[in-house]
Amino acid sequence: MKECNKASISLTSQEYEILEELAYDYFMFGVYEVAKTIYEGLVEAAPQVATYQVGLGLSYKRLGLSGAEDMFHSATQSDPTDALPWIHLAELPERMGSHQQRLDFLHIALNKLHPSDRLYSKVMALLRSTSKRESQSG
Fold first, then answer.
1. Cα–Cα distance between 66 and 106 in angstroms, integer?
2. Are the beta carbons of 85 and 75 closer than 8 angstroms?
3. If 53 and its partner were Cys, which of 65, 75, 92, 96 is the partner (CB 3.0–4.6 Å)?
4. Cβ atoms 92, 54 nearer than 8 A
5. Gap between the Cα atoms of 21 and 6, Å rounded
6. What pLDDT is recorded for position 93?
7. Domains and CATH numbers, the chain
């Protein structure tokens, strides 16, 4: 079988969009391993695209693999204006016991959103539940 040289493959923007939609669809249907494989290829081909990093991080998270946190942090660097990776960082299971860090990530996300954004109410609800848990445990 002939080896494929990945470096020699170039994709059009339309092909990237198709692959991203395919990965998203597989993820939404719960076929996380396939979604992960597609997102890994997208991140390798375009490591600066935050959307691909978030998709890969979510795939890792659903599969219980390490690397989700790294992908979300990379996404915050690739697109500093995007609130979504900060929300996902706050929602990682290992953050559930770290109220202050979870609150910090949620506040960063909130500062990137406008009250009319669809994620604004989600972040507000997460902030309220985290603050409530913190007051109950403290």
1. 22
2. yes
3. 75
4. no
5. 21
6. 75
7. 12-79 (1.25.40.10), 83-138 (no CATH)
